[in-house]
């Protein structure tokens, strides 16, 4: 296997969903560090724009659930977000500052083995094309916007937004993209074809009902990324079906389970 290919051949590769977020506060440097030390092949993060057009790794529209503050991410500046603690809400109790995409790219690319970063754009159409513009600028700056092939890319842009995926494909055609979702057009593959996505990303609930979509995607040259797989039978199903990437909140457990499949 080529050393730059971050997946292990034949089995799904493990993506740490929001970091090792089953153990530590999601989207914190500590949660990503833990996932890396547990051997994750990839890291997943959600990104949103702040009021001053910085990309930060926060899942929700507001900061109430994951910080000690209140407010809408897109109405706050990065400096305002930095005033809050994004770790102490979690039972692990470790305080943490807001994580920027820049922080996470640095952490990922500095790791001693190649790890892939799955960057999910949240509701990008609300901002015209500013999310994609800022994201691609940053990927260019880090030298990862034009990989030699999708298989050797260190970054993958994922989104529920077909328009968002299409804008990335148009501007950075070598960058792999995954269209997330559970609609009939995702299951049938027509949505991914329409926007040129290199992969499809159903939930594990959809995959249980429509296992045939993995073969259908493969026949069209697309990989499948399944989320969020925290139970052993689901991981086994993904392995049996030939799913390429499994996103989990517990990367250490999933890696252990995959040893025996
Ligand atoms: O990795 C895809 C998955 O994260 C999509 O759902 O709500 O966790 O962002 P959500
Ligand atoms: Ca996500």
Give the DSSP E fraction (strand runs of 2 or more residues): 15-25%
Question: Which ligands occur here?
Answer: SN-glycerol-3-phosphate, calcium ion
- For the biggest β-sheet, the strand order reads 1-2-4-5-6-7-8-9
Going by CATH, the architecture would be Alpha-Beta Barrel
Proportion of helical residues: 25-40%
Output the structural class: alpha/beta
Name some characteristics of this structure:
261 residues; alpha/beta; TIM Barrel; eight-stranded parallel β-barrel; 16% strand; disordered N terminus; binds SN-glycerol-3-phosphate; binds calcium ion; Glycerophosphodiester phosphodiesterase family protein; PLC-like_Pdiesterase_TIM-brl; GP_PDE_dom
3D architecture notes:
By secondary structure, the protein is α/β, with parallel strands linked by helices. It has one domain: TIM Barrel (Alpha-Beta Barrel). The chain is 34% helix and 16% strand. It is built from 11 helices and 9 strands. It has helices at 29-37, 78-82, 101-110, 130-141, 162-171, 184-188, 190-195, 204-209, 212-219, 232-241, 251-259, and strands at 13-17, 42-49, 55-56, 116-121, 155-159, 177-180, 199-201, 223-226, 245-248. It has an 8-stranded parallel beta barrel with strand order 1-2-4-5-6-7-8-9, surrounded by 6 helices. Helix 1 links the parallel strand 1 (13-17) and strand 2. The protein is globular. The model is unreliable at 1-8 (pLDDT under 50). SN-glycerol-3-phosphate (G3P) binds at residues 17, 44, 46, 59, 120, 180, 227, 247.
């Amino acid at each position: 296997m080529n050393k730059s290919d971050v997946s292990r051949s034949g089995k799904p590769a493990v993506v740490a969903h929001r970091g090792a977020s089953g153990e530590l506060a999601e989207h914190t440097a500590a949660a990503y560090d833990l996932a890396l030390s547990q051997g994750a092949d990839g890291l997943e993060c959600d990104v949103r724009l702040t009021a001053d057009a910085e990309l930060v790794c926060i899942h929700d529209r507001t900061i109430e659930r994951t910080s000690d503050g209140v407010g809408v991410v897109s109405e706050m500046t990065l400096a305002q977000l930095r005033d809050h603690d994004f770790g102490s809400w979690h039972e692990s109790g470790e305080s943490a500052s807001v994580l920027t995409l820049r922080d996470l790219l640095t952490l990922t690319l500095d790791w001693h083995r190649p790890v892939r970063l799955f960057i999910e754009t949240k509701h990008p159409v609300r901002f015209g094309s500013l999310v994609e513009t800022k994201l691609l600028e940053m990927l260019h700056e880090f030298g990862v916007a034009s990989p030699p092939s999708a298989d050797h890319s260190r970054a993958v842009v994922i989104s529920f937004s077909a328009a968002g995926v299409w804008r990335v494909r148009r501007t950075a055609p070598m960058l792999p993209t995954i269209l997330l979702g559970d609609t009939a057009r995702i299951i049938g593959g027509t949505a991914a074809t329409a926007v040129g996505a290199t992969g499809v990303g159903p939930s594990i609930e959809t995959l249980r009902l429509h296992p045939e979509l993995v073969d259908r995607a493969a026949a069209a040259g697309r990989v499948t990324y399944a989320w969020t797989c925290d139970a052993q039978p689901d991981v086994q199903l993904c392995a049996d079906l030939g799913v390429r990437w499994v996103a989990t909140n517990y990367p250490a457990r999933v890696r252990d389970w995959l040893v025996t499949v």
